[in-house]
Amino acid sequence: MQVDEKTVRGIRVRTKNSAEMNPEKAKIAGLWQRFYADIAPTLSQQASVLGVYCNYASDLAGEYDVLAGSDMLKDEHAAESVAIKGGRYLVFEGKGGLPEIVIETWSKVWDYFSSDQSDYTRAYTTDFELYNGDNEIQIFIAIE
């Protein structure tokens, strides 16, 4: 799928997958807790909620930034912004309860790209999660 560039504002952490597997070092869950406590109440119903993965140090083993935010967030609510790069993306979808569905859908992403059957290569530029309500997610992975 072709995606146009767009800016997302929110709050950010830097982490890596190995840290996220350890509850004592994980940062993403706390990032989303802060987002839903402090920022989500300021959003209009038309606003999209996104999780943007960017500034990859290397590949799935390296560090990266995660920004929890929205495409309709005002400057006074979040000082950080990131541009989702325009380009080609593969979309992985999941439905179910949060946060389980996020973990399951990311597992599909990792399984797909670690398979010899994968037709595409991850670009490691910007990837993003688009939350559609409380029980549906789409994960967009940038491809070369």
Description:
This protein is α+β, with helices and mostly antiparallel strands and 144 residues long. The chain has three helices and eight strands. β7 and β8 (136-142) form a beta hairpin. The chain is globular and about 45 Å long.
**Spatial extent as radius of gyration:** 15 Å
Total strands:
8
Low-confidence stretches: none
Q: Average the pLDDT over all residues and give the rounded result.
A: 93
> Which strand order spans the largest sheet, edge to edge or round the barrel?
1-6-8-7-3-4-2-5
Strand content: 35-45%
Q: What letter string, H or E per element, gives the SSE order?
A: EEHHEEEEHEE
> What count of helical segments does DSSP give?
3
Report the structural category: alpha+beta
Anisotropy-based shape: globular
Helical content stands at 10-25%
Largest sheet, strands/sense/barrel: 8 strands, antiparallel
Roughly how many Å apart are the termini?
12 Å
Properties at a glance:
globular; single chain; 22% helix; 3 helices; 37% strand
